Amino acid sequence: MNIKAIVFDYGGVISMPQDKAYFFPWMQEQTGLDEATVREGWARYRLDFDGGLLSGADMYRRILQDNGIDAPSPAFCQAIASRDLDSWAELNPTTLVWARELKTAGYKLGILTNMPLEFLPWFERAKEFRLLSDVEIISARVKKVKPSLGIYQELVDRLNLPPNRILFFDDAIRNVEGARAAGLNSELFTTVEEARKTLAHYNA
Predict the structure, then answer these.
(1) pLDDT category, 1, cuts 50, 70, 90?
(2) Of 4, 34, 62, 152, which alpha carbon lies 20 to 30 A from 43's?
C-alpha cells in the first residue's frame, strides 16, 4: 500500500500527553472533585466544548453544579478551564522531527484534532508543525468532532486523496476506530518509533 499523507492528532501526538499532575491535584484541592469525577463530567460535556458549542468556563460550571457546587463564579470556572488548557501545551519534539523528515520525503501532512477555539493561543506553540501541514482541521472551527464520520470526510476532501492513501495517528482508540469506519488507515499513537514502524509496514 502506498501511503501519500500522514495525519496527526494534537493532544498526546503532536503534544505530550496531558500533564495530569499539573491539573488533577490542583482541581481536587480547589473543588474537592477527584480525577474520576472530572472525567465523568468530560464524558458529558467535552465534545460540545471541543465542537465549539460550550466555552470551557461553561463546561466546568456545569461539571461543578452537577456535583453540588452551586453558583461557581465565572472567574473561577475560567481559571479551571485555563489550567486545563495549560496542561496540554507541552509539545512532543520527536513528533516534530519526524514530521520534518516526512515532509522532506514528499508526504502530505495534516492535523486533525478535537480542539476548542480557546486553545488556539496555546496551539500557536506548534507553529512550526502547523507550517509543515497541508491541511489543518480543528473541530471547533468545522463544528464536527471525532469520532463522527463528517470530520474524517472533511479531511479526505481537503487532502484530495483516496481514504486508503491516508494514515492517521491518534492517541484515543475511539478516534482510531472512527477513522477506520470512514475508510482511512488509522493506528493508535504510542511513540514516534512505533509510528515509524507502522508506516513502514503500510508501505511494505
Answers:
(1) low
(2) 152
Which DSSP string corresponds to 28-74?
HHHHS--HHHHHHHHHHHHHHHHTTSS-HHHHHHHHHHHTT--S--H
**139: amino acid identity, one letter:** S
Q: Tens digits of per-residue pLDDT, 27-59?
A: 999 999 999 999 999 999 999 999 999 999 999
Q: What is the distance between the alpha carbons of residues 84 and 155, in angstroms, rounded to a whole number?
A: 27
Q: Are 54 and 43 in contact (CB under 8 A)?
A: no
Task: Return the SS3 of 114.
Answer: coil
Cα-Cα-Cα-Cα torsion 146, 150, 152, 158, nearest 10 degrees, comes to -130
State how far the Cα of 204 lies from the Cα of 183, in Å rounded to an integer: 20
- DSSP strand E in the chain: where? 5-8, 108-113, 135-138, 166-170, 185-188
pTM over 0.70: yes
